[in-house]
Amino acid sequence: MHPMADTKSSSAGLDTDSLKQRILARGWLDGAAPEAANQLLELCVWRHFSPGQSVFRIESESADLYVVAEGQVAVTQHFHGHLDAANIHLYRAGEWFGYTPIIRGAPRRIQTMARTDCVLAVIPEVRLRSFLADHPEHWQLMALIADSQGIMNGLAALDLSRRSPLERLCGALLRMAGCRQIDGPDGPPFDVTASQTELAEASNLSRNATALLLRQMEKEGLVALHYRRLTLLRPDRLRTTLDMT
Fold first, then answer.
1. CATH number of the domain within which 233 lies
2. pTM for this one?
3. Which of 17, 50, 26, 2 is nearest to 152 (CA)?
4. Mean pLDDT per 10-residue run, the chain (245 residues)?
5. Are residues 46 and 128 in the same domain?
6. Residue 176 CB neighbour total at 10 angstroms
7. I want to staple 98 with a disulfide (CB 3.0 to 4.6 A). Which of 8, 66, 69, 204 is the partner?
């Protein structure tokens, strides 16, 4: 993992108030007292990550907590004993991650890497543990973060159980765009920085089948295809496709 950047150099030139509001607009901490969410963000330091830079690696024992303010972070989870099965996702503005070590006291089970230029709010482990020790009632924040991830994991399982290849691909695109249920704070349109191979893996489809479906979506004005990324233009239409079944 890359060393923590100096707080001043990390936040220089950043409108941190706007970034905090962007994070809170996601709504993942709804249900907590507003002052608790703000107090949590007051603990953060701001870090910039370049495309391809590791945020943290699997089995890392650090327990820093992360939330995306800008950009996209790719997360990959390989399940023990099944190296050919991987869960691929993109964290986007307002999405929290890295909470497992603080909750379970276990090493990290995922690896994360900046897919685009990213600004992350990082809450160092020492500050987080002190905050929770002084305010044990704020463990609810950790529960809300874990619950939000559980909801998304449940939706992923639901989408992958669909028989229709188109529906599985729609579900994967919406999840990676951060708008599976409602539009997120960074769109529409939503840029999805993922290759067709990654989209195929996330949809449990062959690459050829994925390419054919994406070309048809482009003809219908739902997406715009680019090299190793796409733009999701009409997330509402994709959600309708899923809701009709």
1. 1.10.10.10
2. 0.87
3. 26
4. 41 83 81 82 95 92 93 82 66 92 89 96 96 93 90 90 96 93 84 94 94 98 96 96 79
5. yes
6. 25
7. 66
